[in-house]
Specification:
By secondary structure, the chain is of the alpha/beta class. The chain contains ten helices and seven strands. A seven-stranded mixed sheet has the order 3-2-1-4-5-7-6, sandwiched between helices.
Amino acid sequence: MSSQSHEKKISEIYNKRWHELKDSWNDVDTLALHHGYYKNDTKTSREAIYNMNNLVGSLLNLRDEKPMRILDAGCGVGGTSIYLAKRHPNIKFIGISIAHEEVKFAKKYAKTNQVKNAEFILANFVNTDFPDNYFDNIFAVESLSFAENHNDFVDEMYRILKPSGRFIVFDVFIKKPSMSSIIKKVYKEYCREYGFVRIPLINEYEFYLKEKGFKEIKFFDISKNISPYFYRDCVLNFFVYTCKLFRRLFKIKNNKKKNNLDSHYRWLTFLAIILGLSATVSYYTTIAIKK
């Protein structure tokens, strides 16, 4: 697939997805397309989403007394940047996405929330027009897997990040590249449904970071903190999802009505559970510092 075809495909998926999400999600006010971060005392998805936003802010080491410029690489409709911008009015946030509908909504929601220090731009995070050494820190929440080439993503982030700047990523990584034939089919279904070319290998990603010159590279497995609500739902409906998986793997026609987006995300979580239980993937927070 050419880079233009890949960009068009991802753009089409997310241009459509936010319109569906607005109609199907109960808590659209969070503006979040990420899973959320569940602590022991977290009771709602809204709390989990704000927990994740706060964790991003903490890892970015945001300091209001110092002028900072932060990049949100793959910003969705701007939820995390808008949330952090409201709490740090002296820090400039710039979000980029290749989906024009996402950028349009992000601008609208920034205005609705009276946030003037968050800007949203239509751009591809593997090839931006930003100058070298432009951003103090960069974060990417569940967007790395949409990069057609993960090494290109690392290269571009390194170029536009200032020396000593922090590069934070929250995403799913493959930790065991060898897969059985069944797990391979589950993995392909997961990538196809999400629009991924492939999920990054954690060892390969670490190699890219080191080769480019990042230092103090750290990986934290936070799988147990991601979407327990969806996990519980998938367990309770294990038979339903197992039947659906069986039909998908063996290409058995299903005449049932198409699922709504909420059900779609539960289905993706079910696939993620299988990949997780097989020790194929985990959800990581990664931190790297530019020399």
